[in-house]
Amino acid sequence: MDRLTAEELADYLIEIGGTLVSYGCPSYRLEQLIAVVAELEGLKAQAFAMPTGLFVTVTETDLTPLPLDAKSDRASLPPLPPIAPIVRMVRVKEWGTNLDRLVGVDQIFNEVAEKKLTIRQARRRLRALERTPPPYPPALRWIAAAVVAASAAVFFRGGVFEVSVAAFTGLLVFGLSLLMAKNPSGRFLVDFAGGMLAAGVAWGASRIRPDFSREVVVLSGIIALVPGMTLTTGLAELAQRNLVSGGARLMEAFVAFLSILFGIALVIGVQHMVGIEVSFAPARHGLGLPFQAAALVGAALAFAVLFAVPRRYVWAAVASGAIGYIATALGTRHLPGHIAAFAAALAISLFSNLFARATDRPAQLFQLPGMMLLVPGSFGFLSLEGFLRGDYLDGAAKGFSMILIAGALVTGVLVANVVLPARKVL
């Protein structure tokens, strides 16, 4: 095969890098991947990745042979002009998590590394990948949104009524997010509108049953909007010394928390204006173990649909969620919460790295569904909610718990990567 020029490699790297950024690939993994791809082509590349963009610089080594009569006296030759690096930049305006396409990008990368595919062919495959339909029909995504909210209500010790109202709320919030995402300006108000809608539904449900737990319904209804995974990924990037990307993700999570909270606060303020007393009933004792098991399986399958896990790997989502749930349940009986979170993250990451090595697929495919059941987003929401009610001590305590649990999750992932690292960067 013909040797690739630096310009062609830079174009390929920025294309594959921008695709991975839009699919939610962490910055530290992406930067390592770009360096590895360039090394395979005999060139050198440096990348600077952020959640909203990517810079790539490719340096080409001068291979021009010296004249025969000058080899004996190299010092007498004038210095060669420096070769200008090839710089590319891409701006990413929309990003999310699509594990099906992430697996497709990984397969293309593997074939390029094994010299089964040229980079010119790979770029055509990447463009075709963007046009592939999602692995699940839209109706199933609606069902998954309701199942995630209902499962969260079970985990938050809600009763049958809370679970039912939470499922309905999750369905409405998902539909609202799809509707607002079509508006270029309205998509920035999804978190605010979702929090307002969840609080409004809880307000209406309280007129039917005043003794139900509004906190469970509100938190479960907006659980898909709570940026717990963004918070955890940001801390992981800070731990990898990706300070700009990690700080940006933490600020993104903080703004999302504030938007959701203000939407809820707006509804509560309206209730005060019309003279309705706002009361937060304590959470129920919860449903039994069979409901917990059903919620675990349902949440894992729902996250598999929402994250577009390839159908042949749906079993991995259920297994990952089960490992995290069992590790957490066993750990919380004898250990503090943050140590139990560390053990659960370690178990999930060891499982994901093991199967990433066995199947030659990205570790995120096996890790993400299970980690979603562990992320501390609910603590962050409850922390801000405590500050809103004027209970600063409770808000500070829950905020510290959120940071501590997030740090435990990140440490568990880092330890697993040392104990049993995946064979591949992605």
Which descriptors would you attach to this protein?
16 helices, single chain, 426 residues
What would you note in describing this structure?
With 426 residues, this protein is mainly α. The protein contains 16 helices and 3 strands. It has helices at 6-22, 27-40, 99-113, 119-130, 138-155, 160-181, 190-208, 214-221, 228-239, 243-273, 289-306, 314-334, 337-359, 364-371, 377-388, 392-419, and strands spanning 44-50, 53-59, 86-91. Strands 1-2-3 form a 3-stranded antiparallel beta sheet. A hairpin with a 2-residue loop joins strand 1 and strand 2. The mean pLDDT is 81.
Question: What's the arrangement of secondary structure elements?
Answer:
Layout: H1 6-22, H2 27-40, E1 44-50, E2 53-59, E3 86-91, H3 99-113, H4 119-130, H5 138-155, H6 160-181, H7 190-208, H8 214-221, H9 228-239, H10 243-273, H11 289-306, H12 314-334, H13 337-359, H14 364-371, H15 377-388, H16 392-419
Helix pairs in contact: 1-2, 1-4, 3-4, 5-6, 5-8, 5-11, 6-7, 6-8, 7-8, 7-10, 9-10, 9-16, 10-15, 11-12, 12-13, 12-14, 13-14, 13-16, 15-16
